[in-house]
Amino acid sequence: MGGLGAVLALVDSGSPLRGPFTLFFLLAMPAGAIAAALRGLDPFGRTVAAVAGAVVVDMLVAQGMLAVHRWSVLGGIVAVTAISVLILLLVVVRRLRGRTSRRRTD
């Protein structure tokens, strides 16, 4: 559903589902990335922290775009996606690095 919202916004569709699906994407994508990074917390705490982090990411992207006078819907979606993918890549690298160091010490 989130991916569909991003696609609808990127192709500038006139669908009435564009708004809710895009909002879901803008909250779910960073929340999922942050939740993956907070693997050690209990489920409720991880959910609360991930949703709060997603709101922070969205607000920082919006504030940064407004500060440099480059506001656009497409730019915001691309920026939030890039930040979320970067967080996910950092989590994957950290996990892979942890596995290799454990194998070397065994």
From TrEMBL:
Transmembrane region(s): 20-41, 48-67, 73-93
Q: Does the keyword Membrane apply?
A: yes
Q: Which UniProt keywords apply?
A: Membrane, Transmembrane, Transmembrane helix
Tell me which domain of life the UniProt entry assigns to the organism this sequence originates from: Bacteria
Name it. Answer: Uncharacterized protein
Q: Which organism is it from?
A: Streptomyces caeruleatus
